[in-house]
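Quick one:
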Amino acid sequence: MKQLLMAKREIGREQMQGTDPRDLNPRELDQENSGKEISFVTVMGRDQQGIVARVSSLLFEHRINIEDIAQKVMRGNFVMIMMVDFKDSPSDLEDVKAAMEKLAKEMGLIVQIQHEALFKTMHRV
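Output:
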């Protein structure tokens, strides 16, 4: 298994040589690699009722699947991380970011959405 992962990384490095990371299309990268279009949603703020429900509903409205979720309340502060899949969503990341920013403003939260390709690119630099 470890050798397989190392081989995949090496192939990825070879494919990336000479490529400007700004030229990468996140949707194409994900579809080539897994068929999924993964992004991470982080939510932070003062704990209150309905945070998970409202964020999840917004994702549902955009047909975004929640792949994994972790949340914790620490001394009255709410923190949640979601791994989501945009594969079947008709919305692009910027549309969902705008909707999340509006929700964050209404609820007094900090919400960020970052595409998985951003993390992959950072590891390659």
